[in-house]
Amino acid sequence: MRVDRFLSNLPRFNRQQVRLALVERRIKVDGQIVSDPHTEVREFSRVECDDEVLQAGKAARYFMLHKPAGCVSATRDPEHPTVLDLIHEPDKHDLHIAGRLDFNTTGLMLITNDGSWSRRLTQPQTKLAKIYYVETEQLITPEYAETFARGLYFAFEDLTTQPADLQLLAPRAARLAIIEGRYHQVKRMFGHFDNKVMRLHREQMGPLTLDSALKPGEYRPLSAAEIALI
Ligand code: URA
């Protein structure tokens, strides 16, 4: 939220005092004096007034997990193990998943407590490709690539999927790049041809690729350079 709104929400300031404190350059966000009332304050920002800390700022956390098959992309589930069961970090219930995968889908999963970062990664407007390795029951014909590139109509959502890129790797294996992450999107796209997806593995989300050193079920923190890519 804006810094003026953040300060006005505190019992100690009224709007007039907020304006004054900003003009008098008494407010710092992340160590920098701010006077612009539009300056953004996030849960991760440190906010000070006259060097008194008003908000300490939570640490933003980012992890890459190699999701194994047979676990649910949820933070809690009454029946099955969840991806969060694989994460051993303090306050792990503050974390959320940026782009879910189905129970038996494997591969790259990004987990964070930073909502704006995960939105940038997953919202279709940012046009970051999610790349999947797919194995199917039936042959994949050249018609698939043309249909996926044109977009498929999904009646339930009443939308046409954005152009997707399909590269054939073998008669029943392909690499598919999609922009959105609609419910069961890849399975529904192949389902259009009555072709069942037998194996699905996410290799990449935008510029982030699954670390080949991570075995299924393992995870690691993202580096500062990886975080800054999104
Ligand atoms: N599309 C699917 O159908 N399943 C996934 O897990 C991911 C994308």
Task: Describe the structure using short key phrases.
single chain, 230 residues, alpha+beta, Structural Genomics Hypothetical 15.5 Kd Protein In mrcA-pckA Intergenic Region, Chain A, Pseudouridine synthase, 2 domains, nine-stranded mixed beta sheet, elongated, binds uracil
Average of per-residue pLDDT values? 95
How many DSSP H or I helices? 6
Q: How does the major sheet shape up?
A: 9 strands, mixed
Oligomer class: single chain
CATH topology of the largest domain: Pseudouridine synthase
- Taking all Cα atoms into account, the compactness measure Rg is 22 Å
Name of the CATH architecture of the largest domain: 2-Layer Sandwich
List the secondary-structure elements in sequence, H or E. HHEEEEEEEHEHEEEEHEEEH
Q: Can you tell me the residue ranges where pLDDT is under 50 for at least 5 consecutive residues?
A: none
Provide the β-strand percentage band.
25-35%
- Gap between N and C termini, in Å? 20 Å
Bound molecule kinds, no repeats: uracil
Q: What is the CATH top level name of the largest domain?
A: Alpha Beta
Structural class: alpha+beta
Explain this structure to me?
This protein is α+β, with helices and mostly antiparallel strands and 230 residues long. It folds into two domains: 3-55, Structural Genomics Hypothetical 15.5 Kd Protein In mrcA-pckA Intergenic Region, Chain A; 62-224, 2-Layer Sandwich (Pseudouridine synthase). The protein is 19% helix and 28% strand. The chain contains six helices and 15 strands. The chain has helices spanning 3-8, 15-23, 115-122, 142-150, 185-191, 224-228, and strands at residues 27-29, 32-33, 47-49, 52-55, 62-67, 96-98, 106-112, 130-136, 153-154, 159-160, 165-170, 173-178, 197-205, 208-209, 219-221. The strands form three sheets. Strands 5, 6, 7, 8, 11, 12, 13, 14 and 15 form a nine-stranded mixed beta sheet that branches. The longest helix is centred in the first third of the chain and has 9 residues, at 15-23. The two termini are 20 Å apart.
